[in-house]
Amino acid sequence: MSSYIFLLISAVLVNNIVFVKILGLCPFMGVSKKRETAYGMGVATTFVLTFATGACFVIDHHLLTPFGLDYLRTIAFIITIAAVVQLTEMIIAKTSPALQQTLGIYLPLITTNCAVLGVPLLNISRDHGFVESLLFGAGSAIGFSLALILFAGIRERMESADIPRPFQGAAIAMITAGLMSLAFMGFAGLDR
Amino acid sequence: MDVLTAIAILTLGAALLGAALGFAAVHFRVEGNPLTEKIAALLPQTQCGQCGYPGCKPYAEAIAQGGADINLCAPGGEDGVRKIAELLGLEIKPLAEGAAQKPPAVARIVEDRCIGCTLCIQACPVDAIVGAAKQMHTVISSLCTGCELCLPPCPENCIEMLPVQETTENWAWRYPARVPALPPLALSPAASGENSC
Amino acid sequence: MLKRPLAFRGGIRLAHHKYESAHSPIASAPLPERLILPLRQSAGRAPEPIVREGDRVKKGDRIAAAEEWISASLHAPTSGTVRAIGPFPVAHPSGLSAPAIVIEADGADEWGEKTPLLDSPARSAANRAALSPEETQRFLQNMGVVGLGGAVFPSHVKLSRAPNTPLQTLIINGAECEPFITCDDRLMRERADDVISGTLFLRDLLEVKETLIAVENNKPEAADALRAALARADAAREIRDVAVMELPAIYPAGSIKQLIFALTGKRAPAHVLPTALGVQCFNAATVYCVWRAVAHGEPVTHRVVTLTGNVEHPGNMEVPLGMPMGQLLALARPRPETDACIVGGPMMGFLLTDERAPVVKGSNCLIARSDAFFPPLEPETSCIRCTSCAQVCPQGLQPYELYWWSRAKNSEKAARYQLMECIECGCCAYVCPAHIPLVQYFRFAKGEVRAAEKAQDMAARAKERFEFRQLRAEREKAERAEKLARAAALQAEKLALAAVTDTDSPANAQTPTTENAP
Asked: How far is Cα C54 from Cα C36, in angstroms, rounded to an integer?
């Protein structure tokens, strides 16, 4: 049981997918201008990632490995993720059209989000079981959401700050992300 | 043989996922576009038609369906564009060409030239002009949105747009002028000492 | 009733600067040749002029009548002739002009007819029973009684009861917390009997449980004078529920929200009127004017103005409304290094932009400005987030957050930090070590918020009218279509009938069709 908790904490904080593994930077930079959008993206990614890890685990262990088709893993995973993303988009369109508009292009782009592909692949390479896979997926997604929301909060305030001209826009965002990444390094050593 | 298995398995997987998506597409169908109301709430409701649509709601519908640009509303100005952009998560654009924001104004009928043709009454989208046939008309200025739709139909050209004057009643405090932390470099002895407030 | 006033949150102790002007009695200002009376001298709608150019008016004659409930009438402060009605410079931070009535004094200063509400002060008790509150309210509106503390809210409006909260406490605000100002202080000292009579009149009218007269403890003479006057009134008839309360002199103790909290422990959020808490509050000078109006039939035509700052003869003067401020300040002999004139107190006042601007009902103080009294502003530097401003904010706001958003012109965010709760007292800017003019930023942002609200209202109304118009157009269209359909049906019927008759008599066949031809 405690190993599950450690796995979760590790995925959320210690090995935060954005700040430590430096994955999923595209939506991290793109959808972090407003907190409301960040919440929406966080929820969508959490949903997609948890489902995708589960589905990918099943496909890998019960379809690819028995037939010796390990070399098809990437392509199979991408198709699975794409389907889950499509499903999510339909659900969001039904439940919250404003969120769908706000997420805009980033919602379909979850498909090509390296974090979403990276987590199932990491699961395979770490020999995680089904529950562990799900936990790792959910944990990574929560970590992603956390990073996104914190960053959006900072960026919202930065809108009104006196930023020197050369640093305005993406530059200051990168610097801020770097500093946050340094801060998250502080969690290292928490789980072991 | 391996290749055939691979093809078969991937086809099977794809077919399963496709079936699931097809089911979802039927099950989660969205009726109408609930965004329209939200966009309409951000528009100034002048009903002026300067965006090229006959009123604010049609324009909101056009934006919601993705057919119209968000920077066409002149009375809403840059601020209006910013709000719509925020709602839809789009980039903020400058106002479209020809859609320059004018200072707020209200229409006024030059009363001795009005012939009482009622054409302006029919044109006013918010019923802000009162009068009867062959009687002088007048604009209720508190209801006038300044849309200028009454100007073209007037055969006498007797409607003029009066910019809203600043009075002690509608005046608001200005943005404070920032006193520079370091006084500007005095180049000549005469220029120094003029930095008092 | 609280034994001792509560300490409100925040606030600052300031150098009072009251002694300069408080030591001499109220003097009478000489009558100027021309009086300029801006129509708008109260909150709400400006009254409409009821005189024309060339009309003769006597002192106390009504020259502009209130046409709406939140509005108060205006009266001639002296006898003379109406010379002009039009825009004139007024004392306003914008420096804009506003419509005004100009009266040329004839020097006779002859009173018109006085019609007091209470026939004579001696019979007042009997009369009072017969008075309806509405009658009193209309009377005060016609007498032009407005809050003289600076907000100039029409007093008669404040006499309406809240629908479901009974009034419990009446507060008479004699705190006068801003430095330099002593007009209420002198008024309470010299005319305490009238202030007390007015207080008792309002108390009887509002039927409150307790009445508290609040005076800051840096004005012991005023408090003593009020207590003595109260004792005299008590000798005539027993008064148990009126008390003079001394408040610690912490700015802004006289601000209505802070005052209500200090005296009753009740807090009023923004947009909530004190009446909803069962409290009503009047300025001491207003109460004096109420009494002059009801007992003597004198409308508000004069007010006491403090002249102080960098002048030779600081003091208080009873000034006819409409006297140019420059002329008035000259009476106190400004010293040579005076470079500007502050209207109002040093914390919340503004600089006079035109010395021809006249004294109005809300002008309580003119301060001759000089660098010795008010050292020039130091340049604004960056906020260091020391939170000194939050510690002194009497409203419990976070001025550093408000500043962050106001400066970035993001008034929506500022409003979420409760910008509209700000009372613009200036405590935050006073203590700011970075010399940021915080209040100026807040005033700007408040203007933006109000403009946005107004635009929203306008849009909602325009939308409603537009939609109704479309509905009407559709209905008209439907009605027309129905009419046409009915006409067509009728015609078809007739044709059918004609067809039937046609077989009987071919001679008649043509008639219905020709009749129905358009």
From this structure: 15
Q: With an 8 Å Cβ cutoff, is A160 touching chain C?
A: yes
Task: Please tell me which chains touch B, using 3 or more CB pairs under 8 Å as the contact test.
Answer: A, C
Amino acid found at C327: Q
Q: Please report the domains of chain B, with CATH numbers, ordered by start residue.
A: 34-88 (1.10.15.40), 105-174 (3.30.70.20)
Q: Is A83 in Cβ contact with B17 (below 8 Å)?
A: yes
DSSP H or E stretch at residue A158? helix A130-158
User: Chain B: residue nearest A58 by CA?
Assistant: B13
By CB atoms closer than 10 A (0-12, 13-18, 19+), residue C134 is exposed
Restricting to C residues 388-447, those with a Cβ less than 8 Å away from any Cβ of A are 404-405, 407-408, 410, 413
pLDDT score for C512? 46
For residue B169, the distance in angstroms to the closest alpha carbon of chain C comes to 9
Amino acid at B26: V
Residue B70 has pLDDT above 90, yes or no: no
Q: Using alpha carbons, select from C63, C48, C39, C30 the residue that is nearest to residue C152.
A: C39
- For residue C399, how many other CB atoms are within 10 A of its CB? 30
- Report, as ranges of residue numbers, the positions in chain A whose pLDDT lies below 70: 102, 104-106, 191-192
- The answer to whether C378 and C387 have CB atoms below 8 angstroms apart is no
B 76-105 near A (Cβ less than 8 A): 86-90
Tens digit of pLDDT for each residue in B143-159? 888 888 888 888 888 89
Q: Which residues of B touch A54 (CB under 8 A)?
A: none
Q: In angstroms, rounded to a whole number, what is the distance separating the alpha carbons of residues C73 and C299?
A: 9
* Interatomic CA distance for residues A99 and A82, integer angstroms: 19
pLDDT at residue B195 above 60? no
Tokens of B50: 């300067």
> Could you tell me what percentage of chain B is helix, strand and coil, using 3-state DSSP and rounding each to the nearest 5?
30, 5, 60
Query: pLDDT digit string (tens) for C415-474?
Result: 999 999 999 999 999 999 999 999 999 999 999 999 999 988 988 888 888 889 889 989
Please give the pLDDT value at position C199. Answer: 93
User: Tokens at residue C151, please?
Assistant: 């907000």
Average pLDDT over every residue of C93-117? 89
Contact A79 B13 (CB under 8 A): yes
Return the residue in C402, C406, C413 with the most chain A beta carbons within 10 A, the one to mutate for interface testing: C413
Give me the residue from B167, B174, B180 closest to C444, CB to CB: B174
Residue C55: alpha-carbon gap to chain centroid: 29
Pick C399 or A159 by higher pLDDT: C399
